């Protein structure tokens, strides 16, 4: 167990620093998500994560012995993040409380779903070679575009050969009525976010619910493109359906020329 801050810094790699930054912003990652984000394999991610847990850079927990570990910032990881930002280091008690609150949060499953989308997109973009996920913002950062009046589940920018494709993201698990989701899209339309409107991408976990949303929004006009999918992998393929269209498109095609 590491006891000295200088020793921690000496043992951290550039990839570790990136991982600390990612967990500070996105709070929780599984080994599979770590691998998609910055490791060559899930095995390699798990091996390094165990070392970082032993150093107290990361902390981990799981619901029971059959579930995969979830990783978040430990005491030294939170301290390194604060040091890099010029902020006071949190106490061990504060870090322990944050870990406990995350572990028992009812919103944790939704957060993990959001993070799975972005880490999978990052991995597929890395494999594709022609696409880069050049920005990944958490809920609080995305809400800043609307001064907190609308809270997307996340936001990002895909960089492709033709330029940048900025988007807001919504992860729908089917726990709320479709009218609630439609009303949120209306709030997107009613407010001008900083930097202008972005495409809105919706990942909907059930295909039937995705079809029902398209039916509910049929004939509606929005000042931005809305595209939905109900798959969890192959996100860069032709799996996105535009509202108001039967056409399936790739994310790289969501440019000004693509309209519903």
Automatic annotation (TrEMBL):
It comes from the Bacteria. This is Replication-relaxation family protein. The lineage of its organism: Bacteria, Bacillati, Actinomycetota, Actinomycetes, Glycomycetales. InterPro entries: Replic_Relax.
């Amino acid at each position: 167990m590491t006891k000295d801050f200088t020793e921690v810094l000496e043992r951290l790699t550039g990839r570790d620093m990136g991982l600390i930054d990612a967990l500070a912003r996105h709070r929780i990652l599984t080994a599979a998500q770590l691998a998609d984000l910055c490791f060559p394999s899930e095995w390699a991610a798990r091996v390094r994560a165990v070392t970082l847990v032993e150093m107290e850079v990361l902390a981990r927990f799981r619901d029971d012995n059959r579930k995969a570990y979830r990783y978040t910032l430990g005491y030294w990881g939170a301290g390194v993040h604060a040091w890099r930002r010029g902020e006071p280091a949190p106490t061990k008690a504060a870090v322990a409380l944050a870990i406990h609150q995350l572990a028992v949060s009812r919103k944790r499953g939704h957060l993990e779903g959001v993070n799975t989308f972005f880490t999978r997109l990052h991995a597929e973009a890395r494999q594709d070679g022609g696409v880069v996920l050049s920005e990944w913002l958490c809920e609080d950062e995305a809400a800043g575009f609307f001064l907190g009046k609308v809270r997307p589940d996340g936001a990002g920018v895909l960089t492709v050969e033709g330029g940048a494709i900025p988007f807001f993201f919504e992860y729908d698990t089917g726990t709320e009525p479709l009218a609630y989701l439609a009303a949120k899209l209306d709030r997107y339309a009613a407010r001008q976010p900083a930097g202008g409107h972005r495409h809105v991408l919706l990942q909907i976990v059930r295909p039937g619910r995705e079809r029902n949303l398209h039916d509910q929004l049929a004939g509606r006009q929005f000042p931005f493109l809305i595209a939905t999918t109900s798959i969890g992998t192959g996100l860069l393929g032709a799996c996105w359906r535009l509202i108001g269209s039967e056409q399936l498109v790739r994310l790289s095609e969501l440019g000004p020329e693509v309209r519903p």
